[in-house]
């Protein structure tokens, strides 16, 4: 069964995706930075699942259930009721926000405490294929681990299992802000390493992103498990990253191990078709590259002749244009921006973007507005009538 995971864009959200990915093959992970972005994402997923013939599994972790998310759950149940029994999709929602309980009650859903697990609440739904669990006492990473029987297709043993357990304990202490726990310092170190690396080497949406981040979190958790101090953990991160990059770039013809990890990754990313969307005017658009990596990647893209103008969109809505034909500034001006002829920046009208597809939908019509069809004008119609 194809598995898709929607999760929060923070340490707990990535911890949850690391846990789920360890126990089942996940085809796609969508990291959502703001709860306000959950609505468009789940709407798109519901439409997609409505067109999908084979049953799939959707896992939602660490996404505070605002009204739109609760409505999605009820619509998911309704969708399943219209499908044949053997073709019904599965939905697993694991959350720990108190506000989620409020939203569920407001929409009239029945909540049942689970006696054997204090703090855990199950939402009573008519579809056994839909499981919604809320637990204020556990972070999403711990929920994904403790309820892995809901989705797991394999067991994990040995050092990998012990590293995952260390990850769970550290993230749980940090996310619930339990400073009295001995695992809290390890959680702090993990959080710093997470934010230092989540956008610097492999951008969100690239096929390597979750593979890299999950491997990084597991490896660092292994150092935490050994009882290392935060200073030692920080010192070992460079060597861990180097090992992970060596693995990612194994077999890359143009890889040069004498370069820095950024330089090496930039070369690989510049050749990636998955990183870019070609706009109608030939501009290459990427999403989520940090400014340093974008500078390197865009230069390599233009040097190779793949494009003459490249634009990168950040989650915050800022745009960076680079060109080798003096068109970067022209592009930035369409987004209330400015700068140099070949290096300029602007801002999305909507203020933010949550994915490559969202960025494309916002940039394309502004950068390349549709031209009116002369044949559709009333003057053209009159001319044709007279003729």
How many β-strand runs?
13
CATH class of the domain at 2-155: Alpha Beta
What CATH architecture label of the domain at 2-155 applies? 3-Layer(aba) Sandwich
Rounded to the nearest angstrom, the radius of gyration is 24 Å
Helix content: 40-55%
Q: Report the total helices.
A: 14
Overall mean pLDDT: 92
Distance between termini?
62 Å
Shape annotation = globular
* Assembly annotation: single chain
Secondary-structure element string: EHEHEHEHEEEHHHHHHEEHEEHEEHH
Could you say which structural class the secondary elements and strand pairing correspond to? alpha/beta
Low-confidence stretches: none
- As a percent range, the share of strand residues is 15-25%
* CATH domain fold name of the domain at 2-155: Rossmann fold
Query: Main sheet?
Result: 7 strands, mixed
Q: In which order are the strands of the major sheet placed? A: 2-1-3-4-7-6-5
